[in-house]
Structures are given as C-alpha cells and as structure tokens.
Design a protein that fits this description.
By secondary structure, the protein is an alpha+beta fold. Helix content is 32%, strand content 12%. A three-stranded antiparallel beta sheet has the order 1-2-3, with helices on one face. A two-stranded antiparallel sheet has the order 4-5.
C-alpha cells in the first residue's frame, strides 16, 4: 500500500466548521494556547486541535460546559453550534437551508431573518472589522480586506 503524503493546510484554508470556529476564535481572543485550554478542561492538546479544525464534530456536554466556562462563551450557543454546525461561524444548515445562530440565545434562524424568532434580538446584516473598518457580510468568518477573524456577529 502506498504511503499518503501529509500536506499541511494553509491557515486560512482550514474549514473549522461552526463549532470549531467558535472555539478557535474565542481561544485566540483570550490569548490562550491550545495546550492551556486543553489543560483547563482536562483534555489533551491534540483533542482540542481536532475540535478546532472540525475533525471532531461531537463534543460531550461536560466538555461543552468546561469550554464555555474557560472561554467565557454561552454553553447553549456551543451546543447549538455542535448540533447543527456545517461550515460557517454562527451559521448552520438545517434541511439544506442556511441558518444563522442568534448571538444572544443561540437559536437558529433563517438566513434572511432580520430578528431572532426565539428572543427577538435584531440579527445583523453586516459586520465591521475592528482592525481595518471594512464592512463585511454578517456570515463572514474573516474580513475580506485584512483577513482578521471575526469574534462573533455584533448587533448593528
């Protein structure tokens, strides 16, 4: 059998998925390494790396609680991302249609919704990059001008 040569992916080419993207972004915003977060939640660094890169898509509830506490995230939002995550930060597909997760309660809403159907919070249509000021689509993971990762969808 031929050996498969491993190719390292470029940083921006990694499709982290919704759940992995939330964990990765929060960890970076807190200035923590994967090893520090993994130790804080009782896991090893390779496990956390696999979660952040989307190789592990199901995370047990006790790990979600520990991640939420360590990274100052909403456990319900993490659970929603874990259960419905497909490819974009704050979004998921349900029945083949894109859905946006409300940043207040984590409820999944149709991609064309203006307000969360669960809590009534206004859903943003765009997000401004903190680094360069460029206005990007609210479903974007990274700024199209400078490449900076977005923490979350902020209210307009």
């Amino acid at each position: 059998m031929a050996r498969r040569k491993l190719q390292k992916r470029a940083f921006n080419d990694i499709d982290r998925g919704t759940f992995g993207g939330l964990i990765f972004t929060a960890r970076r915003l807190h200035g923590l390494t994967q090893a520090e977060v993994a130790k804080a939640i009782g896991r090893d660094r390779p496990w956390l790396s696999d979660v952040e890169t989307g190789k592990i898509t199901f995370v047990p509830e006790d790990d979600i609680q520990a991640l939420a506490q360590t990274l100052d995230l909403d456990a319900r939002q993490l659970t929603t991302a874990r259960d419905g995550a497909q490819s974009r930060l704050g979004t998921a597909t349900v029945g083949g249609r894109w859905r946006r997760a409300c940043q207040s309660c984590g409820h999944l809403n149709p991609d064309d919704a203006n307000y969360c159907s669960n809590c009534g919070t206004r859903l943003p249509t765009s997000v401004e990059c903190d680094a360069c000021g460029r206005i990007n689509d609210s479903l974007a993971n990274f700024c199209t001008q400078c490449g900076r990762a977005f923490r979350n969808l902020s209210s307009p």
